[in-house]
């Protein structure tokens, strides 16, 4: 947020030469929405509320709610202008590694808006939602087939929520055996949610180092095993963009001490249709529907992170779940066996995500999904091959669906990974994932996804290589000033992180971090 007087526009806040209006062509400048607000202005006519006796028990609001007064055109223009300042998967290559910014096919969006699916209510009688339950059951069937696992819980609302589901099932299984264990082994290259989930479930997190190949160090893993180890959380393919070649050996090792194998399925997109995690010894694995099956990636409401289970953990899966009853499909809300660890959500899950994911599966078929994973891996290796002469790959050999580089190619230039990422913005690309995984110094993690054409990848490679050459040529000052062509220049991210202003207060407008 730029420092400026309330209700005014400061041309200097934008990144180009000054103009009278503060605008730069179609890059339109405007005050914040709260600065535009005016008492008495409204986009709708609301009738006067008749006098009545409230039941608030003395808690009635004493002051205005604080929302800005705006006309309808102001609201529309404000959010349209904000959208023009955002980069999106519908605008160009989105190389964000680890997060898998997949294209969302419009066929899926058409299906999810069909009457009977878009207007469902979670408290409808089961007899009126038989089609929806059949859809959920069909999705569950294909998730089990694709993973080689006998059971699935669809209620988790996201990948991290799915992790919690899997770990709670592991804890429930051990409690049922009267075997309370304390430790979870987690690779140092794991997604940050893995150790956080284990800690949230009451476990001690014991980190496992990677070997020189960027994979779990098997010897170090086995050395940490003991009777107090509840299980392990391993991402496969891992966050270095590599397949864990020793995955079956690791699974056998954890099982040998009575522990369970939780697999972070965030990168299932790289192996779907080719490898079944159940065949690798996995006991529980969440599936990010947005990463593998093209549902929207955040920002649009609840997501979905189904969890598949082995026979050993299936009895402990949470309720509710769909079953085939005498009169059709039914929803089991209470577990009569007493083994289920409980409930994760008030209702079954996110129906909109289920529809999109199943539409994606059915439109591709088994051969199509296999083709998707193949193209994802092909594109990543094309990117790796095209950039390895100017950038420095973190590990030798081919990668899976994402290519990882370290910052060695910037040694002696004075340019940092952050500087390089800011320069990519000026080239018209969202930056790759920076500084992750933590096991790689100055990491640059890139994932092109399967839908990018060779032409699009060639243009991206040309831009990245050009920036690398410019950095090596000694143009440090250029990189330190990037980005130059955005609505706002480089922010003071340290100040913003340490002293964030999260609530609008007019008297604090001038104090906001720039």
From TrEMBL:
Its EC number is 1.4.4.2. Residues 375-470 form the Glycine dehydrogenase C-terminal domain. Residues 1-24 are annotated as: Disordered. Transmembrane segments: none annotated. It holds the Pfam family Aminotran_5. SUPFAM superfamilies: PLP-dependent transferases (SSF53383). It is an enzyme of class 1 (oxidoreductase). InterPro entries: Aminotrans_V_dom, GDC-P_C, GDC_P, PyrdxlP-dep_Trfase, PyrdxlP-dep_Trfase_major, PyrdxlP-dep_Trfase_small. Keywords: Oxidoreductase, Pyridoxal phosphate. One of its GO terms (molecular function) is glycine dehydrogenase (decarboxylating) activity. It comes from the Bacteria. It catalyses: N(6)-[(R)-lipoyl]-L-lysyl-[glycine-cleavage complex H protein] + glycine + H(+) = N(6)-[(R)-S(8)-aminomethyldihydrolipoyl]-L-lysyl-[glycine-cleavage complex H protein] + CO2. Residues 179-298 form the Aminotransferase class V domain. The glycine cleavage system catalyzes the degradation of glycine. The P protein binds the alpha-amino group of glycine through its pyridoxal phosphate cofactor; CO(2) is released and the remaining methylamine moiety is then transferred to the lipoamide cofactor of the H protein. PANTHER family: GLYCINE DEHYDROGENASE (DECARBOXYLATING), MITOCHONDRIAL (PTHR11773:SF1), GLYCINE DEHYDROGENASE, DECARBOXYLATING (PTHR11773). This is glycine dehydrogenase (aminomethyl-transferring). It comes from Dongia sedimenti. The lineage of its organism: Bacteria, Pseudomonadati, Pseudomonadota, Alphaproteobacteria, Rhodospirillales.
């Amino acid at each position: 947020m730029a420092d400026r007087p309330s209700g005014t526009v400061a041309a200097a806040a934008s990144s180009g030469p000054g103009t009278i209006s503060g605008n730069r062509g179609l890059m339109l400048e405007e005050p914040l929405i709260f600065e535009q607000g005016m008492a008495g202005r409204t986009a709708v006519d609301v009738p006067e509320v008749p006098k009545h006796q409230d039941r608030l028990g003395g808690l009635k609001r004493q002051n205005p709610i604080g929302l800005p007064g705006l006309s309808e055109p102001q609201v529309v223009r404000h959010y349209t202008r904000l959208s023009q300042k955002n980069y999106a998967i519908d605008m160009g290559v989105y190389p964000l590694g680890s997060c898998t910014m997949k294209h969302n096919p419009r066929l899926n969006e058409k299906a999810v808006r069909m009457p009977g699916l878009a207007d469902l209510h979670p408290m409808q009688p089961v007899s009126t939602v038989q089609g929806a339950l059949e859809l959920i059951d069909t999705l569950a069937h294909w998730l089990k087939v694709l993973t080689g696992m006998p059971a699935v819980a669809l209620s988790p609302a996201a990948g991290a929520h799915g992790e919690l589901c899997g770990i709670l099932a592991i804890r429930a299984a051990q409690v049922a055996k009267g075997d309370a264990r304390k430790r979870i082994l987690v690779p140092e290259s794991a997604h940050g949610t893995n150790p956080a989930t284990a800690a949230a479930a009451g476990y001690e997190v014991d980190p496992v180092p990677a070997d020189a190949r960027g994979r779990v160090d098997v010897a170090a893993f086995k050395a940490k095993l003991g009777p107090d180890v509840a299980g392990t959380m391993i991402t496969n393919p891992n966050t270095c963009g590599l397949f864990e070649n020793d995955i079956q050996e690791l699974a056998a090792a954890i099982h040998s001490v009575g522990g369970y194998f939780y697999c972070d399925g965030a990168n299932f997109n790289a192996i779907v249709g080719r490898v079944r995690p159940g065949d690798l010894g996995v006991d529980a694995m969440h599936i990010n529907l947005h990463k593998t099956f093209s549902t929207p990636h955040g920002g649009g409401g609840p997501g979905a992170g189904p969890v598949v289970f082995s026979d050993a953990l299936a009895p402990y899966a949470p309720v509710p779940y769909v079953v085939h009853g005498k009169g059709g499909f039914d929803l089991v809300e209470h577990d009569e066996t007493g083994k289920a660890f409980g409930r994760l959500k008030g209702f079954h899950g996110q129906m909109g995500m289920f529809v999109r994911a199943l539409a994606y599966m059915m439109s591709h078929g088994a051969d199509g999904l296999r083709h998707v994973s193949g193209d994802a891996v092909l594109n990543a290796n094309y990117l790796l091959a095209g950039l390895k002469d100017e950038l420095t790959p973190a590990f030798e050999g081919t990668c899976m669906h994402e290519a990882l580089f370290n910052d060695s190619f910037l040694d002696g230039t004075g340019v940092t990974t952050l500087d390089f990422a800011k320069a990519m913005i000026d080239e018209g690309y969202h930056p790759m994932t920076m500084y992750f995984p933590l096991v790689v110094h100055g990491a640059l993690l890139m994932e092109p996804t399967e839908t990018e054409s060779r032409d699009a990848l060639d243009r991206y490679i040309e831009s990245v290589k050009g920036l690398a050459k410019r950095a090596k040529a000694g143009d440090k000052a250029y990189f330190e000033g990037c980005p130059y062509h955005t609505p706002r220049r480089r922010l003071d991210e340290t100040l913003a992180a340490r002293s964030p202003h999260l609530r609008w207060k007019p008297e604090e407008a001038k104090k906001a971090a720039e």
